[in-house]
Amino acid sequence: MSDRETSIADLELRIGYRLPEDYRRFLLERRPERWDDEGYEPVGGGDSYSFSILRSLIGLDKLADNREMYKGRMPETLLPITYDPFGNPVCLALAGEEFGKIYFCDHESEGEPEEQPYWENTTEMDASFREFLDDLYQRSGECPDANRESPS
Question: What is the pTM of this model?
Fold first, then answer.
């Protein structure tokens, strides 16, 4: 098992859920925690909102801590994986009928901790992480495709 696979397995153990395969594959093959260093730029005058979401994808090293920060503020089964330019988390569902789907969470409409799990401030964006990347790609003009070669 590679160091990266071990880190993903450790993350899954820490959060108590197995990640959907498309997202696991993405984390194995890409390194969002290094994107600022890689100099991703929008291509063809792409949509800056979508590009900001791509740039903000949370690296493997920060996913568990980031999830902990939102404990009691969103459903337990959601994992924040990126943010929109206004600080709203975009999350991956880790269990239930929602497993693998991507949700937008309006941080200004969070429920009270005693109301959890609170889904009223969430909106389904895509049916899978792959679909989410494809949608962003169509809008931004660049996609960090999991099939692209990772920098060493």
Answer: 0.78
